[in-house]
Design goal:
Blueprint (H helix, E strand, L loop, with lengths): L2 H25 L4 H18 L14 H20 L5 H7 L3 H12 L8 H18 L7 H22 L8 H21 L1 H7 L15 H29 L1 H8 L2 H15 L9 H36 L2 H8 L1
Helix pairs in contact: 1-10, 1-12, 2-8, 2-10, 3-7, 3-8, 5-7, 5-11, 6-13, 8-10, 10-11
Length: 328
């Protein structure tokens, strides 16, 4: 599958997952925290079961790297969800754009992939949108959502770097990759279940969804099973594959489009369900304009850099006289 199509399908799957979660919470009154645990567990089991006749990779459950990834994913999800106590979903989508400049910086420092110089203009536009949205929030930059979303992006980038470098994410055997992804989901579900007091200590306030009440309620179980098998498992597979093939920076660039994809799906969902229609204000659209400008600038900058590298590579392969003529 071409990388571009892989990224598009990945973002669509994540958008459907988020909308399905909202439907389960608003229409079926599933328990948010418990449903997340069940999603991860059922999604992971489904991926392992989809490898018939193959041994369960028990050894992977003991790898510290898998547990590090799981903890980072837990912190990413918990901090983002906590931010939704203070801001709306569209606002959180704008705030998450701080992840793109941070991903570029992390790729330069830890992966040895510095961005093209003109890319920083696009990153500056993204940060301008994030800062404008933060300033517009109640309390401005002191709003807890600002720091929670920043923490969410930092842990998300950290987990993405772990995923890109993870040796089991480099395998070409599709069945082995499914089993590896299933293990990661199960490990993350265990961390979600076992460590809520630890997560509560990390956050500066009490989380209302850390209670395990209604953990075995039928709406929660059924929602967790359906969303986990249909969306959570596939989304995780596509995410790991996207990070492996496209890299952390390109993955986060593609993730920038999730805000608009999610809004479009929510508009459609609102027509057929009782889920409220998104109503973004004027500040949102101004920030979205900064976001769109940043994405376009970064995309064009990378395209120019690729063309320049390709021209340089082709000229190096030509005889000296021909290369000089081509450059002229």
């Amino acid at each position: 599958m071409p990388v571009f199509i892989l990224l598009v399908v990945n973002m669509l799957t994540w958008a459907l997952l988020l909308v399905a979660n909202r439907l389960a919470l608003l229409q079926f009154h599933a328990d948010a925290y418990a449903m997340t645990c069940w999603q991860l567990a059922f999604g992971g089991l489904a991926l392992i079961i989809l490898s018939p006749g193959r041994k369960i990779p028990w050894r992977q459950f003991y790898l510290p790297l898998n547990w590090l990834y799981g903890m980072l994913r837990v912190l990413t999800g918990v901090t983002w969800t906590a931010a939704l106590l203070y801001i709306s979903s569209p606002q959180s989508g704008i705030m998450s754009q701080s992840g793109m400049p941070l991903a570029a910086l992390a790729a330069m420092l830890f992966l040895g992939r510095p961005p093209h110089k003109t890319e920083w203009i696009g990153h500056a536009l993204l940060l301008a949108g994030v800062l404008l949205m933060s300033w517009h929030l109640p309390g401005g930059f002191s709003n807890p959502a600002v720091w929670l979303m920043l923490a969410s992006e930092i842990t998300s980038i950290s987990s993405s770097i772990v995923a890109e470098k993870h040796p089991y994410n480099q395998v070409r055997d599709s069945w082995a990759h499914l089993r590896f992804t299933g293990v990661l989901l199960l490990v993350t579900s265990v961390i979600f279940l076992v460590f809520p007091p630890l997560i509560g200590l990390v956050l500066p306030f009490e989380m209302p969804f850390l209670s395990l009440e209604n953990f075995f309620g039928w709406p929660t179980l059924i929602s967790g099973f359906l969303v986990g098998v249909l969306f959570r498992g596939p989304a995780m597979v596509l995410t790991l594959r996207s990070i492996k093939l496209a890299g952390v920076e390109t993955y986060f660039l593609a993730a920038s489009s999730l805000t608009f994809i999610l809004m479009g799906i929510e508009f459609i969902t609102a027509r057929f369900t009782t889920v409220p229609t998104p109503e973004p204000d004027g500040i949102f659209w101004v920030c979205a304009a900064f976001m769109t400008g940043g994405i376009i600038t970064i995309t064009l900058s990378r395209r120019y850099a690729r063309q320049k590298r390709a021209a340089s590579t082709s000229s190096q392969k030509l005889p000296p006289a021909t290369a000089c003529a081509a450059q002229k």
